[in-house]
Specification:
Layout (H helix, E strand, L loop, with lengths): L10 H28 L12 H14 L7 H11 L12 H7 L7 H23 L5 H8 L2 H9 L3 H14 L4 H10 L10 H7 L3 H22 L1 H20 L11 H7 L4 H9 L2 H13 L4 H15 L12 H10 L7 H22 L7 H19 L8 H5 L8
Helix pairs in contact: 1-6, 1-7, 2-3, 4-11, 5-8, 8-9, 9-11, 10-15, 11-12, 13-14, 15-16, 16-17, 16-19, 18-19
Length: 412
């Protein structure tokens, strides 16, 4: 195995390192879970803490109606019984996601937590396996040991499921654009992460996928309105400004775990308007770069990676567990390394991106005011653009069959 400089990479050593990282994460999850649930040690992090919000909302919606999930009067008692905590965590999700989690309220908390995490991990594993079929064994093992999985499990979040849905859209785009559009519509469970897909599809002239996404999104929203009531959407729309003001703009206790440019600016002491201005300085060129790659019909690996990176950079608010999405550009770039070898700087950037979910978790846990993810994401976007422009002269070579041959069989 070699990188662009010609140096060989010891694939067996990488597999051993990745396996060691995976075992360490499994041990930590097992120990923390046993401490909290088996030994009632409340000093340990609660595995599935954020799932408390999901399950509480499901129970409240079943008993009192969908609009009640936005009321602390109904949510606080259930949350407090499951997770003794000083502060109340509101339900900030749209009715589309509430429709998905309501069936979990029919199960016990423990049973629904296991089912929810199993679905997320299985969806993530299936998507990564589909995308990573062309990568080496070492690269595949690196993705299996990706810390974003453990972070999503310990928080009990939906980030693995959302990332798997987006990955499924990319995997199906060429062969089944209708199904790809349906996957994009499924991102209505977390609609802010699907905001750039229509732009990408228009730039890439993916009209069938765009039409499917539009129709399926409308159907998803319509079904949620019929099932939960139109007032659920009205309550959600009314609650969003309050959530944005309290949790995003003035949520000092959340900024350490919020790996966004906006949060970085707020931690630096900038005002809310100034932070929005600083934040906009990066997402705008990121979206332009992403759109350029889709207009130019760049390799799918580069287009997909740019879309995910730009999606993360655009968000003024997302939490460290959402960095599970960073698995997608990592695995796509590892797959692209089958066409053009990764340079040393690119390998370092991918390794840093791989670590970001764990870094975010510890930054939030210990209130560390250090946000590295925005810089890493900008670096990844620069790598994606460099690889696109570096590959363009290849089309002028005299031997296209030789150019199509993989330069390297592994990257990590």
């Amino acid at each position: 195995m070699k990188i662009a400089s010609g140096r060989q990479i010891d694939e067996k050593r990488i597999i051993i390192y990745a396996l060691a990282a995976l075992i360490a994460q499994c041990l930590v999850l097992a120990i923390v879970g046993l401490r909290y649930y088996a030994f009632s040690d409340r000093s340990a992090p609660m595995v599935g803490a954020d799932f408390v919000i999901f399950w509480s909302a499901a129970r409240v919606a079943l008993e009192h109606g969908a609009t009640a999930v936005f009321s602390p009067h109904w949510m606080r008692p259930i949350e407090s019984a499951l997770w003794p905590h000083d502060s109340f965590a509101p339900w900030p999700y749209p009715p589309t996601f509430l429709l998905v989690v309501i069936p979990l309220g029919l199960l016990s908390f423990g049973g629904s937590l296991i089912a929810f995490l199993a679905i997320g991990v299985a969806a993530y594993a299936a998507t990564v396996a589909r995308i990573a079929r062309q990568v080496s064994r070492s690269a595949f093992m690196v993705m299996i040991a990706f810390p974003g999985v453990a972070v999503a499990i310990i928080t009990g979040q939906n980030s693995l499921l959302a990332a798997a849905i987006a990955g499924g859209a990319f995997a199906l785009l060429s062969s089944s654009p209708i199904l790809a559009g349906a996957c994009i519509a499924a991102l209505a469970i977390k609609p802010q992460f699907g905001i750039l897909f229509p732009i990408a599809l228009i730039c890439g002239c993916q009209w069938r996928a765009l039409a499917s996404a539009a129709v399926c999104s409308a159907a998803f929203v319509g079904i949620s309105a019929l099932a939960l009531g139109r007032t659920a959407w009205i309550a959600f729309a009314s609650f969003l400004p309050l959530f944005n003001r309290l949790a995003v703009e003035h949520g000092r206790e959340l900024w350490s775990g919020m790996p966004t440019i906006f949060a970085t600016a707020r931690l630096a002491g900038l005002s809310v308007p100034a932070s929005y201005i600083v934040h906009a300085a990066v997402p705008v060129p990121a979206v332009i770069a992403m759109a350029y790659l889709w207009v130019k019909d760049a390799r799918l690996e580069l287009r997909a990676s740019a879309l995910v990176v730009a999606t993360l950079l655009v968000q003024p608010y997302f939490m460290y567990y959402d960095l599970a999405w960073i698995a997608l550009p990592i695995v796509f770039l590892l797959r692209d390394a089958e066409r053009a070898a990764l340079g040393r700087a690119e390998l370092i950037a991918l390794a840093a991106a791989w670590l970001m979910p764990a870094v975010g978790f510890f930054a939030s846990r210990f209130d560390i005011h250090l946000q590295l993810a925005p810089a890493i994401l900008v670096g990844l976007l620069a790598i994606i653009l460099r690889r696109h422009f570096a590959s363009r002269p290849l089309s002028c070579h005299a031997n296209p069959e030789q150019d199509a041959a993989p330069i390297v069989k592994s990257s990590i």
